[in-house]
């Protein structure tokens, strides 16, 4: 592992935006144990970054604030980036050259914002470009699903509604951008543990009126009525989530909520200036925690 390199040192780079669950409703459970979810998902301009370049042999390297935490998993072969590379290579239908992949890990590990899934999706996008592949959309979706239920969403990295286990997605081309502060107490939360603590698995689904909300204010009003069903059980497992949420709430955001299965929480602010001021205040209060100001990526109208 070479922690001196950065993704920008490579011939081709691909962003891996953080995935934010603006809402997550647990609506049921399949016979195979998978939970059925309705999710309103957006992606941020802040995230991990991957670099790619042709190499004499396959190689993988890490940098970034959270890179050292992934080193052990990578050496053990438990790395979604490498799994994505291998699955795409199998599906290519022709010989593909060796590649050096570099992951600049800027997102906390096991934090409920899709870091690993985003990295896998960015690997697929980057290698498609590097290897000049043209595979059918269904083939790419199949590969993505083999890597994890969140990977197809991250492959799109656009605002969307996801249902089922996450495989049924509908893009929201008119979805606006929001200014956010992300926070994480740097404590990993086990997703299976959170689901096990759910008191109810058949909650009301995510419903919109016959017409989708239009513009920021209508979407904000809608988001306020939604929820994350995983937040109460996650708070019971990790006390830091309640503390974190309270700190963000003290900065007077429009909405405060946990993303995914935690422990990342976010606050939506009126504009980037307010979000930047809030993030600075939070950094001063808890310099040992992770706080990041960012914006979500708007839909592609």
3D structure, described in words:
Residues 79-156 form the GHMP kinase N-terminal domain. There is one protein chain. The protein is of the alpha+beta class. The chain has ten helices and ten strands. It has helices at 67-75, 80-91, 115-130, 137-147, 151-156, 191-196, 215-225, 231-237, 239-249, 272-285, and strands at residues 12-29, 35-54, 59-63, 99-104, 160-164, 168-171, 179-184, 255-258, 265-269, 290-295. The strands form two sheets. Strands 1, 2, 3, 4, 5 and 6 form a six-stranded mixed beta sheet that branches. α2 (80-91) runs parallel beside α3, α2 packs antiparallel against α4 (137-147) and α8 crosses α9 (239-249).
Layout of secondary structure:
Elements: E1 12-29, E2 35-54, E3 59-63, H1 67-75, H2 80-91, E4 99-104, H3 115-130, H4 137-147, H5 151-156, E5 160-164, E6 168-171, E7 179-184, H6 191-196, H7 215-225, H8 231-237, H9 239-249, E8 255-258, E9 265-269, H10 272-285, E10 290-295
Parallel strand pairs: 3-4
Antiparallel strand pairs: 1-2, 2-4, 2-5, 5-6, 7-9, 7-10, 8-9
Helix pairs in contact: 2-3, 2-4, 8-9
């Amino acid at each position: 592992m070479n922690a001196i390199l950065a993704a920008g040192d490579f011939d081709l780079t691909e962003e891996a935006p953080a995935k934010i669950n603006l809402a997550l409703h647990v609506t049921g459970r399949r016979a195979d144990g998978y939970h059925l979810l309705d999710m309103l998902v957006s992606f941020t301009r802040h995230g991990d970054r991957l670099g790619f370049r042709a190499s004499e042999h396959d190689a993988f390297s890490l940098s970034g604030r959270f890179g050292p935490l992934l080193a052990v998993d990578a050496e053990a072969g438990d790395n979604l980036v490498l799994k994505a590379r291998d699955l795409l290579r199998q599906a290519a239908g022709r010989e593909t050259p060796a590649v050096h992949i570099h992951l600049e890990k800027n997102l906390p590990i096991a934090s409920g914002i899709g870091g690993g899934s985003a990295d896998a999706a960015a690997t697929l996008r980057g290698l498609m470009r590097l290897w000049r592949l043209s595979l059918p959309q269904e083939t790419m979706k199949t590969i993505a699903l083999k890597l994890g239920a969140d990977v197809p969403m991250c492959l799109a990295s656009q605002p969307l509604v996801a249902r089922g286990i996450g495989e049924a997605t509908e893009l929201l081309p008119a979805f606006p951008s929001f200014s956010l502060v992300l926070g994480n107490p740097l404590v990993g939360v086990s997703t299976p543990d959170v689901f096990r603590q759910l008191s109810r698995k058949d909650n009301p689904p995510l419903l919109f009126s016959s017409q989708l909300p239009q513009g920021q204010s209508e979407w904000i009003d809608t988001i306020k009525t939604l929820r994350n069903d995983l937040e109460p059980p996650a708070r019971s497992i990790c006390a830091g989530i309640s503390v974190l949420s309270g700190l963000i709430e003290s900065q007077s955001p429009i909405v405060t909520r946990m993303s995914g299965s935690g422990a990342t929480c976010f606050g939506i602010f009126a504009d980037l200036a307010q979000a930047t001021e809030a993030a600075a205040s939070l950094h001063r209060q808890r310099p040992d925690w992770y706080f990041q100001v960012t914006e979500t990526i708007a839909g592609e109208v």
